[in-house]
Amino acid sequence: MPEIPIELVDRLQALLCxxxxxxxxxxxxxxxxxxxVTNRYLAALGSDRRFTAEELxxxxxxxxxxxxxxDLATAAGVPAPDLDPWVxxxxxxxxxxxxxxxxxxxxxxxxxxxxxxxxxxxxxxxxALTRLDGCFTATxxxxxxxxxxxxxxxDSLGTPTSKPDPAVYLHACAAxxxxxxxxxAVEDSLPGALSAVRAGCPTVGNxxxxxxxxxxxxxxxxxxxxxxxxxxxxxxxxxxxxPGLERRAAxxxxxxxxxxxxx
Length: 263
What we know:
Number of helices: 12
Order of helices and strands: HEHHHHHEHEHEHEHEHH
């Protein structure tokens, strides 16, 4: 099992969770709905390019639709149109689809409930807040992740700024009243991990919902981005953090805790 230094665990105040592909397996179904809107958008640009859902997922994982739409206009060699109507349409279509297909996952719920006894739980996502709300309701974690602790690169910033830019993590830390080094980020994608690491947040890569065929490559990408560890499940992350968090709650001296780990 990977390790996280006890000194780092001792100073943690918050668990900063990416949403899509990390708290629930939303990326694949989301791109089914998003590809339909994306292809209509490309037609409106006059571009002949079209994406299947899987092609779009592989090309844009970790980005929000606004960033993807702007990039596609640049690639087509045309000025980006007013993106607000397209962003709104994509948001509505994807949110409706995810609300229908996502279901609760006991492993995630138990991990959040357990770690939430020791750390403030927050969400730091590229997705829109309405999409997060639909996903959290469908997966049964809305009460664990209340609206006041949800931070969206699409909706929470003065200017929407998608990962890998660190802006959304810096905003979340400021809103929570913590220094970045006090928030442990949990990310499944390369853009997300880069966003957290660049903000100064210690980061763990999570492969729980990454397709098995993509896990080795994703793990290598996450490590190259600078994550402290890569875990395969929320159970593994809980096992990694809980002993140190419980020692801290019991008031065990840091030096003694470290000595105990060494034996």
